[in-house]
Specification:
By secondary structure, this protein is of the alpha+beta class. The protein is 40% helix and 31% strand. Helix 1 packs antiparallel against helix 2. The N and C termini lie far apart (59 Å). The mean pLDDT is 75.
Length: 234
């Protein structure tokens, strides 16, 4: 094994010298330099692995099975990397079915994320919004001028305004309510992220569900509804 190791090291050393001498021409022994380098490294790695198996004394059948298992693992990893975006889409669809309001990532176009929201059983579009890293379920309300959190959701996020801070009047489905204004560090739906967005907090008992309003929707490049799906474009 020691002799084989030094032979492999000598071959690698000669290959490095050849690559240095042929750097300007870009080709070594008829191969492009990049291809030649990969050929040497793969050959050396294959030789060392093969020699290790042979020295182990295991039957050829066992070695063939082990090589087959490792080859399958490597191919699975390569396939997983190549189809990572498709797998993310499948994971998003499964999550959307298990967790109501979970955004479904549709991809990135020109660096801008596109996500979809599925209509809930109550007929409204709901979104699982991450506010400062905390998930909050909110109803998409294009009639609301701003995003409004219930007192309970605000407390979960970490907002605890004093009673004297509820000075702003807002219109809700239950009528007029008083609210306090705060600013989020980050508000995100899927890959769509907004920094420093102001939101309102409804006084305790004044709002049943948090609302995702037009201050967020209006910051998008566009949105549309297709059947039971709402598409949001960053």
């Amino acid at each position: 094994m020691n002799r084989l190791f030094w032979i492999v090291m000598a071959v690698i050393g000669i290959a490095v010298v050849l690559l240095m001498l042929n750097d300007s021409s870009g080709r070594t022994l008829g191969f492009a330099n990049d291809d030649f380098g990969r050929l040497i490294w793969l050959g050396a790695l294959g030789t060392l692995i093969g020699a290790s198996f042979l020295r182990s004394g295991r039957p050829l059948g066992d070695m063939a099975r082990s090589l087959g298992v490792w080859a399958a693992i490597v191919l699975a990893l390569i396939a997983g990397y190549q189809y990572r975006y498709e797998l993310q889409d499948v994971a998003s669809r499964v999550t959307a079915g298990l967790v109501p309001g979970s955004p479904l990532a549709l991809g990135v176009d020109n660096g801008r994320a596109t996500v979809a929201l599925e209509k809930a059983d109550n007929g409204h579009f709901e979104a699982r919004v991450l506010i400062n890293g905390t998930p909050v379920r909110a109803v998409v309300d294009t009639g609301a001028t701003t995003t409004v959190l219930t007192a309970e959701d605000a407390q979960a996020v970490g907002f605890n305004p004093a009673a004297r801070d509820f000075t702003t009047l807002v219109s809700t489905a239950n009528g007029m309510a008083r609210a306090a204004t705060v600013k989020t560090d980050e508000l995100a739906i899927g890959g769509i992220v907004r920094k420093g967005m102001p939101v309102m907090i409804a006084a305790p008992g004044m709002l049943e569900r948090s609302l995702l309003g037009m201050n967020f929707i209006g910051s998008l490049s566009g949105f549309d509804v297709r059947g039971d799906r709402m598409i949001l474009r960053d």
